[in-house]
Amino acid sequence: xxxxxxxxxxxxxxxxxxxxxxxxxxxxxxxxxxxxxxxxxxxxxxxxxxxxxxxxxxxxxxxxxxxxxxxxxxxxxxxxxxxxxxxxxxxxxxxxxxxxxxxxxxxxxxxxxxxxxxxxxxxxxxxxxxxxxxxxxxxxxxxxxxxxxxxxxxxxxxxxxxxxxxxxxxxxxxxxxxxxxxxxxxxxxxxxxxxxxxxxxxxxxxxxxxxxxxxxxxxxxxxxxxxxxxxxxxxxxxxxxxxxxxxxxxxxxxxxxxxxxxxx
Length: 264
Hints:
The protein is elongated, with a radius of gyration of 28 Å. The chain is mainly alpha-helical. It has helices at residues 20-46, 54-76, 82-88, 90-104, 112-133, 142-163, 170-181, 194-263, and strands spanning 8-9, 12-13.
């Protein structure tokens, strides 16, 4: 009987854990796909800036689509029913089509329709990235999530520094990224250009996603610690009961042996 696809969520699924070859292929391509999808974020803004070449953004979109397609094909070919795996990963198929469309559409600065389409692709990309790292919401994955949070925070600061004329340095960019991601909004620095305002939307969404994952990982750490202590208490009780049972059995054996000697 073929193994079924593992738990599905968000239109995505991992290969069956019992299929070692498919699991290795999925793990091997996880980071390249994640990095390629992260690169589509600056590609979106390259389309909005006149001083950067559009072919660079097209190349990033095409590369990301190729990596998503290659990852799906590499994993699916290791499964007895590859079409089931592809259907279980419908979001990747839609995302791949969206990335190809984003590469073929006219520049966002010249077309509101192209801008809206690339915004939708960016939302799908964000959902795909969050799904890829949600497996790290464990006690052991807290270090990875904190590292990702730091990288995202720095990149958002650099993005505001590049897109917002009112930001005069990286420090101010980091401050604006923090107040935006935390939805504090002190008002000392605010996005004023269309590109910076659109970027602020992504910073808020990324902030919610990353902070939620970090908070969940910390909560998981405390829950797992509490569960570990409960398990240790249960094991200690079981060992104590086993010792008492062995002592009772030994006592019964001694009594039976003594009775046997008395009869003999």
